[in-house]
Amino acid sequence: MAQKRALITGITGQDGSYLAEFLLQQGYDVVGMIRRISVINLDRIEHIQDKVTLVQGDLLDEASLISILTEFRPQEIYNLAAMSFVPTSWQQPVLTGESTALGVTRMLDAIRLVDPTIRFYQASSSEMFGKVQEVPQSERTPFYPRSPYGVAKVYGHWITVNYRESYGLHATSGILFNHGSPRRGLEFVERKISLGVAAIKLGRQDKLYLGNLDARRDLGFAGDYVRAMWCMLQQDAPDDYVVATGETHSIREMCEVAFSHAGLDWQNHVASDPRFYRPAEVDLLVGDPSKAGAKLGWEPMVSFKELITMMVDSDVQALQAGRRFADVTEITRLKR
Ligand code: NAP
Ligand code: G4F
To answer: DSSP for 240-278?
Structure first.
């Protein structure tokens, strides 16, 4: 059988890096789209850089997408690129809409124009459920987004459904609940905690400042979740799927597990900082992954506790090895 080619937008991100690894293992020719910036950060894909083809393009620029599809002719596209950090979406709501919402339309339109047989995966989000209308959340749960990011993702989801219904595209939306890994961006709460625990364990800091500890999230391992993305595009018909663990844990529990793994008591080190609270919060997320289980045969392999301890161990090792991390907490504080 001829080798399949996949295009990944957001290949430099957490999920893009795991998906690229996974697709290479499946024998794919992987093309990754990166945007033009003054210094390209290939940290997450350094180890596979010579096995993938990198091409410049931007979700803000439809012509760049059209020319990539025309040149590379992928059979599958995984649209993972987005402005993905929820607090920044209040600070940069228009940019968030341009990439996270309209960027999806630009890519769908490029597919429609260049090759409507391309299979398309859209990285939708549990953030769309926001102020949840039922517990647990499934593919049938109505959306009630609580951030400009969530609103943009709702648009991305519905334009995917619309292009599927209007033009018969094989366009699928994966509604993924939170997933982290040792490659998670430093601002997201589970990584902020694992890196904070590692720094405290090694005596480099004493306090970790966090926001709302009562929020609850359904948190899995990114390596498991990219497998679900691929399974979705192997189905005969496009559809929507919730991908989640079915468990929910508070941020406080994340702290307990992470600090106790390092032999520390979280209550001695975690302090509250009102600047990390959000203008509107998503209090509780817990997904019902039964459709993904039944139709895709997908289930998560890594538990909540395994994920958090894996992340703490990885950050302790990284700091011990002399790796330096930018302090992003200052620049992600919300103006009040
Ligand atoms: P991430 O680590 O923040 O990666 C985002 C990627 O998008 C980066 O490669 C970034 O490139 C790229 N990007 C941003 N704007 C772009 C633009 N205008 N044009 C081209 N590329 C652009 O995010 P992630 O955690 O891997 O998540 C992947 C996708 O899944 C995102 O769409 C996210 O919203 C969605 N999602 C994530 C989760 C989760 O818990 N991780 C859950 C549900 C849905 P740079 O390297 O240049 O910044
Ligand atoms: O880690 P977070 O920033 O992730 P959030 O907002 O749930 O978004 C992530 O998951 C979405 C899927 O539901 C993705 F679509 C999105 O791209 C992203 O990957 O915050 C999680 C929770 C929030 O309730 C927040 O208020 O943790 C709470 N939290 C408490 N203290 C904090 C902090 N969050 C951050 N980032 N930093 C804190 O200090």
So the answer is: EEEE--S--EEHHHHHHHHHHHTT--GGGTEEE-GGGS-
